[in-house]
Design brief:
The chain is α+β, with helices and mostly antiparallel strands and about 900 residues long. The chain has 27 helices and 23 strands. Strands 4, 5, 6, 7, 8, 9 and 10 form a 7-stranded mixed β-sheet that branches. Helix 5 packs antiparallel against helix 11, helix 16 packs across helix 25 and helix 22 packs across helix 25. The longest helix is centred in the C-terminal third of the chain and has 44 residues. The relative contact order is 0.10.
Length: about 900
C-alpha cells in the first residue's frame, strides 16, 4: 500500500509540474519574460499545496491519515490521563457488559427462532370461552379441525402434560418422562428422526401396536448409542414397545414450564379416541401453516370450521364459546416471561444510559482543563468539525476498550446468568456470546461513545479561543453553562436511579410478601417422590390401593419417619380438575374444582389444619359410606352461607356416572397451582374409596409424601419400593420445601436482577455526584478563599458544599419519583402483596438518595474546608 501511495504522489507531482510549465509557456507566448511568465503561471494555477490536498481527498487517503493522526493523538492524551481513562473505561464496561449479558438471555428466549425449520409457520391453537381462552382442545375438536381445515400443512395433538413410564433396563427400572403425540407430530415440527422412522397411522389408532421414539440422550445412556436399536422391542411399563426411531441430539419440544415437558426422554403414539361427548380439554394442538397462508387467512378458516362444528356435533360447543384462536407458537411459549424479560432489558438499558451520562460528565469537566489546548488548535486553523472528530475519536476509543473488557467478561457472566435462570424461563438455547451478541455489543459501544462524547465535543468546538487563552486559572470549572449542564446531567442520573431503585424495592417487597405467604401446609421435614402407575398393570382401584397400603407400611417403618401418605398430585403441581355438582339443602350448585385422592394420613403428614368436621380415617374403606373432605374455598363457593357439612358432592365415577359423596370435613386452603395464586376449590377423596373410573383419572402418576425430621435418603426409598414392586422406578425425589422455593423462583430471579441493576445505577449516580462536587470545589478555590478571608467560617463552607449536593440530588429525586409513580404500574403483573404506588417505597428511596448525596459531598466538603485563604489569594 505504501509503494502505491508513493507512486501516486510522484505522478501527482509530475502532473502539477507539467501543468505549471504549460501555463508558463502560454504566458511567454503573450510576450512576458521567463520570470514574469513563471510568476503569472503560479498566480493563475493557485496554491499547489491546496491543490494537492484537494486531489488527495479524491483518493481517500487524507481521511484515513487524519483518522490515524486522531487515533495516535487520542492514545497519547489518554495515556497521560490514565486515571481519567480508567474511570471512563470501567464505567462504560459495567454498562455495556450488563447490557450484553442481558441481551444474550433475551436473544436466547425471545429473539432466536425456535429450533425448527421455518418456525414462523408454527401456530398454537387455543380454545376461546366466554371468560377467556385455554391453551388446550378436546380430542373431538382436534380431529375435526385436523381433517377439515384448508390452511394447515399438518397438525399434531400432544398430551397436555408429560407422564412417567418405567423402562426395564436390567438391575433396576428407569423412570422416563414420556410425551404422548399424534403421528404427524414430528412432521409438523419439521424434524425427522436421525434414525428410523416416525409413527405410522396404524400405531396411532386406538388399540394399535405399541411404539416408542427415543431421545438422543436416552439412546446413548441406556442403549449405548447402538444403531441397531431401531426395530428392537423394549419393555416399558411391563409392555413390549417397538423402537420406531431416535431423534436428533439437538431436538427438543419447547413447551411452557407448567407443561413439565422440558426434558422429555421418549415419545409414544397418542392413540386418540374420537369421542364427541368427552368435553375434557386435555390436548395441546400445534399446526404448521401452509406456505403463503397469512395469520388472518388461517383465523378466517377457524371461524368457518366453528360454524361447521356446531352443525356436525350439536351440543359439543357452548353458545358462548368462540372456537379456536391461533397464535404464533413462539409467542405462546414465551408469553409468561416476555414482559419480565423486557422490563429487565429496559432496566439494564437505563443503567447504560446512566453510565454514558457519567462519562459525558467526566468529559465535560475534563474539557475545561483542555480549553487552552483546544484554543491553540483553533487559533492554528483547526475547524470545529476537526475538533469534534478528534474528541469523538477519544470517546470511541474509550468505549471500544470498555466494550472489549465487557466482551472478555461476557462469557462468564452469561454462563452465571444461565445457571440462575429459573425453569419457568423456556430457553430454546443457552445464553451465549455469538455473532448477534457481538454485533449488539459493537453497536452499544459505538452508541455509548458517541452519546458520552457528543455534547462535550460540540461544546469544545464552539470555544472562544481568545477568552480561553487569556484565562489565567486553568483549574476554573468552566463557564456557568458548563456547570449547569454537568449539574443537569447528574440530576438526570439521580432521577433514573430513583426509577430503578423504586422498581427494585417494589419487587423485593413483593418477594418478601410471597415468602411470608402461608401455603396452607408445612413443607418442613417433608420429602416427596413420584411413582408411575401404568394403566396396563393397575387396571382396578383395588390394585392401586393394595400397592399404597404395602408401600406406606414399609415407608412408615423406616428409621426417623413420623408418617407417610400418598396423594394423586402434590400441592404446586397440576392435577385433575373439572366441574362438580353440589347438592345442599335442596339447592344445587356447580363449582369448578381441583380433585385429589389421598390416603388417611395425608392431612397429618402435610399438617393441613382440619377446620370443621374431620379428616380421613382408616375406617373410610370401600365398604363404608362414600365421603369427601373439602377446603374452605369450596365450602364458601358451594353453599352460599349454608352449612357445607352434610352436603353432597356428585363426582363422575362408576358405571352409573355419578356417585353422591357426603362432605364430612373442611380443611384449610392450600396453594395448589402457585404460591402467588389464590387457593382453588378443592375436593379430597379417600384413596380407599376410589372406584375404577376415578382411579384411572387420578393415578397416571402417584405422589408420595413422607414426614421425617431425619433426612430421608433416596437409596432407602428405592429399596423399599423395589421390595414392594420391582417394576416401579422412583422419580423426582426432593424435599417439599424445594418445590415451594421453585414456585417463587421466577419472582426471585426478576427481583434480584432488578435490585442488582438498581444498585449499580445508584453507585454510578453517587460517583457522578461526587465528580461534579469535586470539580466545583476545585474550580471555586479562589471564591472559597475570598469568602474565608472576609470572615466565612469553615462550617459555612461545609454548608455551601452540602447544599449544592442536596439541591442537585433532591431535584433528581423529585423528577425520579414523579416518573416512578407513572411507570411502576407496568410492574403490577409482577407484584404480589404490594401496591405499585407504595408510599413506603417512595419515601425510603428519597431517604436513601439523600444519604447518598450527603456521602458524595463528604470528601469535596473536607477539601473545601481545608482551603487556606492566603494561599488561594496569593495564586492571583
Amino acid at each position: 500500500m505504501r509503494w502505491r501511495r508513493r507512486r501516486q504522489e510522484d505522478d501527482l507531482e509530475r502532473e502539477l509540474r507539467s501543468d505549471l510549465e504549460l501555463e508558463a509557456a502560454e504566458q511567454r507566448a503573450k510576450g512576458l519574460s521567463d520570470e514574469e511568465a513563471r510568476l503569472a503561471a503560479r498566480r493563475a494555477f493557485g496554491n499547489p499545496t491546496l491543490v494537492k490536498e484537494d486531489l488527495r481527498e479524491v483518493w481517500g487517503w487524507a481521511s484515513w491519515e487524519r483518522f490515524q493522526q486522531d487515533l495516535r493523538y487520542a492514545l497519547r492524551v489518554l495515556r497521560k490521563s490514565h486515571g481519567f481513562a480508567l474511570a471512563a473505561v470501567v464505567t462504560l464496561a459495567l454498562g455495556i457488559g450488563a447490557n450484553a449479558t442481558m441481551f444474550s438471555l433475551v436473544d436466547a428466549v425471545l429473539l432466536r427462532p425456535l429450533p425448527y425449520p421455518e418456525a414462523s409457520r408454527l401456530v398454537h391453537a387455543q380454545w376461546l370461552f366466554a371468560n377467556g381462552g385455554v391453551p388446550s382442545v378436546t380430542g373431538a375438536e382436534f380431529e375435526f379441525w385436523n381433517t377439515r381445515n384448508r390452511v394447515f400443512d399438518s397438525a399434531a395433538a400432544v398430551g397436555l402434560f408429560a407422564s412417567g413410564m418405567n423402562l426395564a433396563t436390567g438391575s433396576e427400572p428407569e423412570h422416563l418422562k414420556v410425551l404422548r403425540v399424534s403421528r404427524d407430530f414430528f412432521r409438523t415440527l419439521g424434524v425427522p428422526p436421525s434414525l428410523g422412522r416416525s409413527f405410522t397411522e396404524d400405531e396411532d389408532r386406538p388399540g394399535g401396536p405399541r411404539a416408542v421414539m427415543l431421545a438422543y440422550r436416552l439412546w446413548q445412556d441406556q442403549f449405548g448409542g447402538d444403531p441397531a436399536i431401531v426395530g428392537r422391542t423394549v419393555s416399558i411399563d411391563s409392555e413390549p414397545y417397538v423402537v420406531a426411531g431416535v431423534m436428533p441430539k439437538t431436538f427438543q419440544f419447547v413447551l411452557p414450564p407448567w407443561a413439565a415437558a422440558g426434558s422429555v426422554e421418549a415419545w409414544v403414539p397418542l392413540q386418540l379416541l374420537f369421542d364427541p361427548h368427552n368435553q375434557g380439554h386435555n390436548f395441546t394442538m400445534v399446526a404448521r401453516l401452509k406456505a403463503g397462508v397469512t395469520p388472518e387467512q388461517a383465523q378466517g378458516d377457524m371461524r368457518r370450521l366453528l360454524a361447521d362444528l356446531r352443525q356436525s356435533l350439536p351440543g359439543h360447543v357452548g353458545p358462548r364459546e368462540g372456537g379456536m384462536v391461533l397464535v404464533p407458537y413462539q409467542t405462546w411459549v414465551t408469553g409468561d416471561v416476555r414482559a419480565p424479560l423486557l422490563i429487565l432489558f429496559a432496566t439494564v438499558a437505563l443503567v447504560l444510559l446512566i453510565a454514558a451520562v457519567n462519562v459525558a460528565n467526566l468529559f465535560l469537566a475534563r474539557a475545561v482543563t483542555r480549553q487552552p489546548e483546544i484554543a491553540v488548535r483553533l487559533a492554528l486553523g483547526a475547524s470545529g468539525g476537526r475538533i469534534v472528530r478528534q474528541m469523538l475519536t477519544e470517546h470511541l476509543l474509550l468505549a471500544g476498550v470498555g466494550g472489549g473488557l465487557a466482551l472478555q467478561a461476557a462469557p462468564w457472566t452469561a454462563h452465571a446468568l444461565a445457571a440462575v435462570v429459573p425453569s419457568s424461563v423456556p430457553l430454546t438455547a443457552q445464553p451465549e456470546i455469538d455473532v448477534r451478541v457481538l454485533a449488539f455489543t459493537f453497536l452499544l459501544a459505538t452508541g455509548a461513545g458517541i452519546a458520552a462524547g457528543l455534547v462535550p465535543a460540540v461544546g469544545a468546538s464552539r470555544l472562544n479561543f481568545n477568552d480561553a487563552i487569556k484565562r489565567r486559572d486553568r483549574t476554573e470549572s468552566g463557564s456557568s453553562v458548563h456547570r449547569r449542564l454537568r449539574s443537569l446531567m447528574v440530576t438526570g442520573e439521580v432521577a433514573l436511579s430513583v426509577l430503578l431503585l423504586s422498581g427494585g424495592m417494589l419487587l423485593i417487597l413483593s418477594l418478601m410478601s410471597l415468602e411470608r405467604v402461608n401455603p396452607g401446609f408445612n413443607a418442613r421435614d417433608v420429602w416427596t417422590f413420584h411413582l408411575s402407575l401404568p394403566r396396563q398393570r393397575f387396571t382396578t382401584a383395588r390394585q392401586t390401593w393394595g400397592l399404597e397400603q404395602a408401600l406406606l407400611a414399609r415407608l412408615a417403618a423406616l428409621p426417623g419417619v413420623d408418617s407417610a401418605a400418598a396423594v394423586s398430585a402434590l400441592p404446586l403441581e397440576p392435577g385433575l380438575n373439572g366441574d362438580t355438582r353440589v347438592t345442599s339443602g335442596g339447592h344445587e350448585t356447580h363449582v369448578y374444582v381441583e380433585k385429589r385422592s389421598a390416603t388417611s394420613d395425608y392431612f397429618r403428614v402435610m399438617q393441613i389444619p382440619v377446620l370443621r368436621g374431620r379428616g380421613f380415617e382408616p375406617t373410610d374403606t370401600a365398604e363404608a359410606a362414600p365421603i369427601v373432605v373439602v377446603n374452605k374455598t369450596f365450602a364458601r363457593l358451594c353453599c352460599s352461607g349454608r352449612e357445607a357439612l352434610g352436603s353432597h358432592v356428585m363426582l363422575r365415577e362408576g358405571p352409573n356416572g355419578e356417585l353422591p359423596r357426603e362432605i364430612v370435613g373442611i380443611v384449610d386452603d392450600t396453594r395448589e397451582e402457585a404460591i402467588a395464586d389464590a387457593a382453588p376449590a378443592m375436593v379430597f377423596v379417600p384413596a380407599a374409596q376410589l372406584d375404577d373410573v376415578l382411579a384411572q383419572q387420578m393415578f397416571g402418576n402417584s405422589a408420595w409424601v413422607v414426614r421425617s425430621p431425619t433426612p430421608l435418603r433416596l437409596s432407602e426409598v428405592k429399596r423399599v419400593v423395589a421390595d414392594v414392586d420391582p417394576a416401579e422406578a422412583v422419580a423426582n425425589f426432593s424435599p417439599m420445601a424445594a418445590l415451594v422455593a421453585e414456585s417463587v423462583a421466577p419472582n426471585q430471579f426478576v427481583a434480584v436482577l432488578m435490585t442488582v441493576f438498581a444498585g449499580l445505577a445508584l453507585v454510578l449516580a453517587a460517583v457522578g455526584l461526587y465528580g461534579v462536587l469535586a470539580y466545583s470545589v476545585a474550580g471555586r478555590t479562589r471564591e472559597i478563599g475570598l469568602r474565608m478571608a472576609l470572615g466565612a467560617r469553615r462550617l459555612d463552607v461545609l454548608r455551601m458544599v452540602f447544599a449544592e449536593s442536596l439541591r442537585t440530588a433532591l431535584v433528581g429525586v423529585a423528577i425520579g419519583l414523579a416518573g416512578a409513580f407513572g411507570l411502576t404500574r407496568f410492574l403490577s403483573a409482577l407484584l404480589f402483596g404490594v401496591s405499585p404506588h407504595d408510599p413506603l417505597t417512595f419515601v425510603s428511596i428519597a431517604g436513601v438518595l439523600t444519604v447518598v448525596a450527603l456521602a458524595a459531598g463528604v470528601i469535596p466538603a473536607r477539601r473545601a474546608m481545608a482551603v487556606e485563604p492566603m494561599i488561594a489569594l496569593r495564586s492571583e
